[in-house]
Amino acid sequence: MASGGPQGPGATHLTTKVELTISCENLMDMDVFSKSDPLCAVYINTTGSQWYEIGRTEMILNNLNPKFAKKFVLDYYFEMVQKMKFSVYDIDNDTYDLGDDDFLGELECTLGQIVSNRQLTRPLMLKSHRPAGHGTITICAEEITDNRVANFEVFGRRLDKKYLWWSDPYLEFYKQMETGWQLAYRTEVVKNNINPIWRPFRIRLQSLCGGDPEKPVKVYCYDYHVNGSHSLIGSFQTTLAEMQIATPVCPAEFECINHKKLKKKNYKNSGVICIKSCQVVKEFTFLDYIMGGCGINFTIAIDFTGSNGDPRTPESLHYINPEGYNEYLTAIWAVGNIIQDYDSNKMFPVFGFGAQVPPSWQVSHEFPINFNPANPFCSGIEGVVSAYQQCLPQLKLWGPTNFSPIINHVACFARQAFRQHTASQYYVLLIITDGVITDMDRTRTAIVEASYLPMSIIIVGVGRADFSAMEFLDSDDKLLRSARGDVAARDIVQFVPFRDFQGNSVALAQSVLAELPDQVASFFNSYKLRPPNIFSLSDPS
Question: Phi, psi at residue 423, to the nearest 5°?
Fold first, then answer.
């Protein structure tokens, strides 16, 4: 989730949440032996000059008319201009940087234009302000008034074989709109299986049926093809009410019909889709958890490796400046003032990594900057700044740059909290670094393991180093994998290049906290954990 409005005192209160759905048609074909592989990056600008990315759709292989399944939820402020930019790229590699991918066009508009039109269709434009071929983009907006979700467990039985012995089936759920059918959700592909069992998934009721259990829902079952020419296995129409009668003992069964085969003699169906469970539950919001007593615990980690430069020289990011500031101090002040409002006691454990530490002068990757292992806490951001200034002259900046020890350190506390099976504590690790990283494989493993815990990681990059490794860890377009192939449960990393936001505290606040509210709420909702003080909320249901 991204917030498109101002933060902190003075922010307008006339706001509502809207959900955006994106699709394109007639995109330019940039590939020689196949079609383009499009992805849409979404940006917002509320300050007049600063764009920042709020997220990306999934990449769809070999498709010039993509319907993106990923939704974007934003705060819509009636009284302010919220500029939006939707940039479409043909993805040709696995790097996070979009600069080396083919540009397929973009649309600039305002969120107000999208909301007032409800469905906005415009031509895609190139950087030269010429049309991007015949490509168009459509953005649909819908106000979120229903916080319920439907949790699904679905399997298929005897689906048609599209190869000799198997198919690679996936499902698409569509919502009926005034303008036609809109994609609500797309499952993963189950390989080589005509009796697939899809992973449990959830669909927001607003996206599925507008909250009306009797409104028609269409479900399509396709056989996945790498070249994008997916084969229709069959489809059926139903309602949420019909799916809700399902139980594990008595699933709701729907014949998957391919209407092109209806004229065939003895054709019955192309398989059966079985809804094992469809449970509608209230989804609590980030504010529900915060106001209901969930504590947000921030830990700060500061990079003291040699790549930051000799602190005695002005070129160093850790320069011991007689005037009392350097790039790390500026980042600590700016980001710290944002996060401290969410930490109830404002006592921050602060650690350094990558330096030789007195008196043994051994390299440490998780030492308290106040040199008090029994009490590594600093009082408020002022305490953090004071401890940093006293610590820095006593260290020898060294290396290597290892992230995994501090990630695992915080994960231990998150794991202990999670064992209580309550939504009482959530942990956030803020890493301030110059971007060089040494233990990438171990870091990936640590992040994947932490994704199953009540924990998020915010990485603030200072300086002008190559931040491609940080951007890789911030896996907005696909879930991070460890070196041994384990997949993260969710995206928990947010990377922010600090120099892009210096002098613009509003944009910095938006970028730093863009993903945290949704990460907190989605984690606890996925485990059906209610806010601790549920009866203090307006809706005690």
Answer: -100, 45
Same-domain pairing of 29 and 88: yes
Q: Could you give the CA distance from residue 332 to residue 381 in angstroms, rounded to a whole number?
A: 8
Count of positions (residues) in the chain: 541
CA distance 102 to 86: 15
Are the C-beta atoms of residues 517 and 260 closer than 8 Å to each other? Answer: no
Element (H, E) at 19: strand 15-25
Do 154 and 39 lie in one domain? The reply is no
Structure tokens at 367: 């030492």
Look at phi and psi of residue 346 and say left if phi exceeds 0, alpha if psi is from -120 to 50, else beta. Answer: left
Residues 96 and 184 reside in one and the same domain? no
Task: Scan for tokens 């990079």, then name that residue.
Answer: 303
**DSSP character string of 419-450:** TTTSSSEEEEEEEEE-S--S-HHHHHHHHHHH
DSSP 255: E
Question: 26: closest CA among 116, 121, 119, 111?
Answer: 121
Tokens of 227: 């070249």
Q: Judge if 170 and 267 occupy the same domain.
A: yes
- Tell me how far the alpha carbon of residue 210 is from its chain's centroid: 23
- CA pair distance 143, 109, nearest whole angstrom: 18
Looking at residue 407, its amino acid is I
Residue 23 lies in a domain: yes
Q: Per mean pLDDT, which of 7-16, 67-76, 246-255 is the most reliable?
A: 246-255
- Residue 375 domain-assigned? yes
Whole-number CA gyration radius for the chain = 25
CA-CA distances (angstroms) from residue 152 to 279, 296, 427?
A: 7, 30, 29
Please, is 117 exposed, middle or buried when counting C-beta atoms within 10 Å of its C-beta (0-12, 13-18, 19+)? middle
- For 307, the token pair is 């790549």
CA distance 256 to 267: 12
Q: What is the pLDDT of residue 12?
A: 40
Strand order in the sheet with 131-143: 52-56, 38-45, 83-90, 102-110, 119-125, 131-143, 15-25, 72-77
Structure confidence by residue, pLDDT tens digits, 377-426: 999 999 999 999 999 999 999 999 999 999 999 999 999 999 999 999 99
Co-location of 230 and 316 in the same domain: no
Assess whether the previous peptide bond of 393 is cis (omega < 30° from 0): no
Note whether 138 and 166 are same-domain residues. Answer: no
Question: Rounded to whole angstroms, how far apart are CA atoms 35 and 70?
Answer: 21
Considering the domain boundaries, does residue 352 fall inside one?
A: yes
- Confirm if 497 and 461 have CB atoms less than 8 A apart: yes
The answer to whether 435 and 466 have CB atoms below 8 angstroms apart is: yes
Decide: helix, strand or coil at residue 327.
helix
User: Max CA-CA distance within the chain?
Assistant: 89
Residues 254 and 327 reside in one and the same domain:
no
Mean pLDDT over the full length of the chain: 89
Domain interval for residue 260 = 148-282
CA distance 220 to 234: 6
**Residue that is last in its domain, among 143, 172, 207:** 143
Which positions ≥6 away from 270 have C-beta within 8 Å? 159, 160, 221, 233, 234, 256, 257, 258, 261
- Closest to 440 in 3D by CA, of 465, 398, 471, 479: 471
